[in-house]
Write a structure and sequence with these properties.
single chain; 247 residues; mainly alpha; 9 helices; 79% helix; elongated; VG_K_chnl; Volt_channel_dom_sf; membrane
Length: 247
């Protein structure tokens, strides 16, 4: 019950966090007042996410089991370096897309894959720019660099022209690599399933056509048999005339 009631408020908090987190990164020359406001919003959302976690923990019948099954949420709250991963709360928006645009299991998988990929590229690009900008030896100084790096990392291409040099940046890289491999597997499995279904449908159509042809041949054979039977039962025309003459 708590999770259902808190779902939309948490999505809203994630959106607020996304905006507050992105503004100073995209526009590093914002005014001090704007920077302070963004920090306040980030801290506020962190506190509210903590309240949500504690609330779910207290309402859980098996608290140890809850902690074991929600280690990711706990790590995001406890480790400051993982704060960009709070943006993954936006993945719950995919449930809305799931209910409105996707038909069938394959459609839901495609929706999640596309949505998760887009969100992870955005989050990864912002996070890596935030952690790498201004660091000695870093090749990532702008959001465009970060987005490009995130795309290259998630697709496991790894050109090597841009790479993280900080521990936090490397943690972000590991997450993106793992998610990229996972999503690639999902897309590959979905494509294979689609191709299998297409081949099966073609086989069914060919089988139906073959069965129809067999039925037509059977009907023709029956018709020929009937004609042959009728022709064999009828007396020849010459024999009938000779019999009449003898009488």
């Amino acid at each position: 019950m708590w999770e259902k009631k808190a779902e939309w408020p948490l999505i809203g908090l994630a959106v607020v966090f996304l905006v507050a987190y992105a503004v100073p990164i995209v526009w590093p020359d914002v005014s001090p007042q704007t920077a302070v406001l963004c920090e306040v919003l980030i801290t506020t959302t962190w506190v509210l996410f903590g309240v949500d976690y504690v609330g779910r923990l207290l309402l859980s019948a098996d608290r140890r089991g809850f902690v074991r099954h929600n280690l990711f949420d706990l790590a995001i709250l406890v480790l400051p370096m993982l704060r960009p991963l709070r943006l993954l709360r936006l993945l719950t928006l995919l449930r809305v897309l799931d209910r409105t645009t996707a038909d069938g299991l394959r459609g839901r998988v495609v929706t999640y894959a596309v949505g998760a990929t887009s969100l992870l590229i955005l989050v990864g690009g912002l996070a890596i720019t935030d952690t790498e900008r201004g660091v000695d030896g870093s090749t990532i100084e702008h959001v465009g660099d970060g987005i490009w790096w995130a795309v290259v990392t998630m697709t496991t291409v790894g050109y090597g022209d841009e790479y993280p040099v900080t521990a936090t940046g490397r943690c972000v890289a590991v997450v993106l690599m793992a998610m990229g491999i996972t999503l690639l597997g999902v897309v590959t499995a979905t494509l294979a399933s689609w191709l299998t279904d297409q081949v099966a449908e073609m086989g069914e159509e060919d089988g139906a056509a073959t069965r129809a042809e067999v039925r037509e041949l059977r009907d023709e054979i029956r018709s020929l048999r009937a004609e042959l039977t009728a022709a064999g039962a009828a007396p020849p025309a010459g024999e009938g005339g000779a019999a009449e003459g003898q009488r």
